[in-house]
Amino acid sequence: MMIFIVFAALLSFVHTASASTGVTVMLSESMLGDGEVHGRVRVYFSKIKPEYADSKGPMYENGDEQDTNQVFGFDARFSSSSLSSELPEEAYGYPLARFADLNDLPAQSYNVQVELARFKEVHREGLPPTFLPDSCVSKDGSNGAYEKPDGTIYSKPVVWQFGTPLSLTLTEVIPDSTPSSRGCAGLGDGVDSAWIKTVRIQSSALSKFYKNSTDPTLEACVLLPYGFDDHPDAKYPLVLANGHYNPTFNPGGQFIETKPDCNDPDDYACVSAWYGYYLYTNWTASSSTPLENARVLVVTINHPTSFFDDSYAVDSEAMGPYGTAIMTELIPEVERRYRGLGEGWARGLMGGSTGGWESAAHMILYPDMFSYSLAACPDSVTFSRHTSVNMYEQDNAYYYNSDFKKTPTPGYRDGYSGQSIDYVFPAGDIISTFREMNLRELALGENGLSCGQCDAWEAVWSPVDEATGYAKRAYDKETGIIDKDVVEYWKKFDLARVLVDNWDELKDHVAGKLHFAAGGSDSFYLNNGVYDFQQLLEKSVGKDHGVTFTYGAHDGLGMQHCFRGYEYDADGKVLPNSITRLTYVQDVIPKMVESWVANAPVNADMR
Ligand SMILES: *[C@@H]1O[C@H](CO)[C@@H](O)[C@H](O)[C@H]1NC(C)=O
Ligand SMILES: *[C@@H]1O[C@H](CO)[C@@H](O)[C@H](O)[C@H]1NC(C)=O
């Protein structure tokens, strides 16, 4: 009761403090449920587009950094006595920073739509109760930045004439998508096939950390090896294929058991379906397949949090003990159910981007658990180049150091090449600066709660402010000024430094077994961290370190995100990323198995 009174006082303060924007957001009473609705209100503006006549308006087009629709955001709480809220003048906006800046736009009509991303009260060990997003994913979808989380409330898109009052009503809700989820095997939520199994556990480490205030379920999708039932006494190695949230088993390419009925080499969905089918036929062939001697369990895992679609699978102050939960609870349970060997010499890692960072981090931070890793186009593996930013040397993350110049640090160039059938031209065209990517997140969510990429990195690597419960910022989200104390804390996740600092213990573990790949023109500048990793390693321990680094190019031109290593077509031409991202299993796992066999301990069970 007391909390409620305090909050009501706060709300009226906010109201009187802000001048008027004339934009009112109302919650339909039918959305109220049994109490309050609290969350982030985001008001989207775009030019009029005919396709917005349907219910999918501008809020759906704002998923990616390159998008330039206008958005304003503010936190709000609705209750039966307070069903409307006004967009405050000081609300953060992107690309235009304040509502008053809209005066710079042509006085014409716009499509407008509002969404409310819901918050829940979360209790974490040693931290004050904090409101965090309910979720950053749709259970049926993938990365929450692209698919709206279940429970998101929104309005239908409306046409608004510039200069007139604007009133928006939150009347729609995205329902629980679990019933429509494709599930690990693509057959429905929790429905297994002969090959693909679902493993779900309630993590006790997460229940304890979150004091039961959030769902502690971890999910693994497990592909069983060929011959699993015919060899009931055999035990199998395990490959953890790290990557973003995905309800369906997708270790880098799908596993599709029926022949696709399409035949269009220019349609990426069709090409990808064929590779999914090739993976199935290769996997289930007794011979004449690259997987003939690679009978292993392949596992993908789902561990979304209130900060991102993925926890980064390590122990962090803000997100909690996900590394511990995955290493000591989830993987052992998969191995118990499906006859894993359960030993570090017979486990491997692969993945790209977020999954690339996880694959490097697991190899270095959990050396007893794994003995082979392909870390492709990984997120920052050292912070001397966190994308384009030197977190150790720069004063400001948004501009290079300079007395008089203010040159912005870039964030995203050329475009993502993972779904364009051919190469993307690496002209170096800047789509977003690092500052722009961050300011957009600030509009989507303050205090690091946007579910966006830069906020997610801070939630993994930063300490938590014990007064607020939010991750401390390594750089001010508005100004870019770097906090060196927070960056000092980041060093425990600077994978190059951890490796170099523990070289004597780790050198045999990584030599010949830790592999990096990155495109020479990675779209998010993630190749920079890989270069610096290599340089630090060579400066510290010499060139004879045994870690491999592959930088992707074709015809002398750098490859984009997410290069994972070279593969060639029948004419010897380098395959584009859009194809090689579909062949991780066939190409990487046989190499992993060779390495395991060559390095197996003397008494290992090799049957
Ligand atoms: C969480 O819930 C479980 C089962 O309901 C209970 O045994 C446990 O004590 C709870 N833990 C905390 C920290 O509240
Ligand atoms: C394995 O996959 C390749 C495509 O990568 C395909 O050409 C080949 O026919 C497959 N082999 C088997 C035995 O399924």
UniProtKB/TrEMBL annotation:
Keyword Signal carried by entry: yes
Domain of life: Eukaryota
Alphabetical keyword list: Signal
Signal peptide start and end residues: 1-19
Protein name per Swiss-Prot or TrEMBL: Esterase
